[in-house]
Write a structure and sequence with these properties.
- The protein has 342 residues and is an alpha/beta fold.
- Strands 3-2-1-4-5-6-10 form a 7-stranded parallel sheet, sandwiched between helices. Strands 7-9-11 form a 3-stranded mixed sheet. It has a two-stranded parallel sheet with strand order 8-12.
- Helix 4 links the parallel strand 5 and strand 6.
- The radius of gyration is 20 Å and the shape is globular.
- 46% of the residues are buried.
- The N terminus is likely disordered.
């Protein structure tokens, strides 16, 4: 069994932080910042990417409790941050392993849990939840409910974080799927892409480096247990502005961007119901007063025009990074072809 943590009192740290998933889009910058702040950081991953500097990599299947326990040995963490919790079964496994042995469990949920269509803007952490379009969001909400029930019943020390569309230099934000060069490749080749509903829907994009500051400020604190927090930028752009900034950063002339209604997109590609009706076609505008009250140094310093310029430069620095995701490419191609053939 894991030994109980040696540091269970006080709020200063430094802490031994275990990241379940530590080399992904969001978690990489979080791991890097926590290590730079002097925390001892371990990350459970599949071992497919190198660990950030200062992070101990533990290769294990996060769904295998015995493998997780063996990877950790007797070196129990103070704080667990779960980036890979998608179902209550995932969370129950962590609870069985860590209950009574850690001072904090930070669950990375999603802003997709809020009720759709939105009833009030900006969105606040106590707003109504319930996304009828997204099984992903429904499972995340079920995880939140499971954890909060354990908080009320036994004081399992959970803090819930709800990011929205958070991007790193390895992402090119778009309405389909952001983790590849696909959108830029199509723009460069003058292949059509779409923007939904005239590009007027408002949206929030948050750089992972800014998100990491907010998350780091919640670490090891008793006063954030049982609470939920947004960690998003205050910069609100329309999808038209997002595309314009991307085109400018990429230096693409005469891009072929089709204005296509959400309903049409979803008829052609029904899986887009989840990602448009359940997310990106709804206005993503967030009230961040709560996270700023608890973490005064949380300030989003990177505007999207700077972040997307970094992403374009990262992808173009090495040809091997300029991969086209077949499914993302097919969604853009199918929807645009159907629209043009009307």
């Amino acid at each position: 069994m894991l030994e109980p943590s040696a540091q269970m009192t006080g709020n200063q740290g430094p802490w031994h932080v275990l990241l379940i998933g530590g080399s992904g889009n969001i978690s990489t910058d979080v791991a890097r910042l926590l290590a730079a702040r002097g925390h001892r950081v371990s990350a459970v991953t599949r071992g497919q990417r190198a660990a950030p500097e200062g992070v101990r990599l533990l290769t294990a299947d996060r769904h295998d409790a015995a493998a997780l326990q063996q990877a950790l040995g007797a070196d129990g963490p103070d704080v667990v941050i779960n980036f890979l919790g998608y179902t209550p079964a995932d969370i129950a496994l962590d609870h069985a392993l860590f209950a009574g042995r850690i001072r904090q469990y930070i669950f990375i949920s999603t802003a997709m849990v809020y009720a759709k269509p939105h009833r009030h803007l900006p969105l606040t952490e106590d707003g109504p939840r319930g996304n009828p379009f997204s099984p992903y969001a429904q499972q995340k909400q079920a995880c939140e409910d499971w954890l909060l029930a354990r908080w009320r019943a036994e004081r399992f020390p959970v803090t819930i974080v709800r990011p929205s569309h958070t991007y790193s230099p390895r992402w090119i934000p778009n309405p389909v799927r952001s983790g590849s060069y696909t959108l830029l490749a199509r723009l460069e080749r003058r292949q059509p892409v779409f923007v939904h509903d005239g590009g007027w829907s408002r949206w929030t994009l948050t750089a992972t480096s800014d998100f990491a500051v907010g998350l780091a400020g919640l670490l090891g604190r008793d006063d954030v247990l049982g609470e939920a927090f947004h960690i998003t930028s205050d910069e609100v752009l329309t999808w038209g502005q997002i595309y314009a900034a991307t085109v400018h950063a990429a230096g693409v002339r005469e891009p072929l961007i089709l204005d296509i209604p959400t309903d049409f997109i979803c008829r052609v590609r029904p899986q887009m119901v989840e990602w448009l009706s359940g997310d990106k076609a709804e206005p993503g505008v967030f009230d961040n007063k709560k996270i700023k009250r608890y973490v005064p140094d949380f300030v989003c310093r990177k505007p999207f025009r700077a972040g997307i310029a970094e992403a374009v430069a990262w992808f173009r620095a090495e040809p091997g990074r300029q991969t086209v995701d077949p499914e993302t490419n097919a969604v853009f191609a199918d929807v645009c072809a159907a629209w043009q053939a009307r």
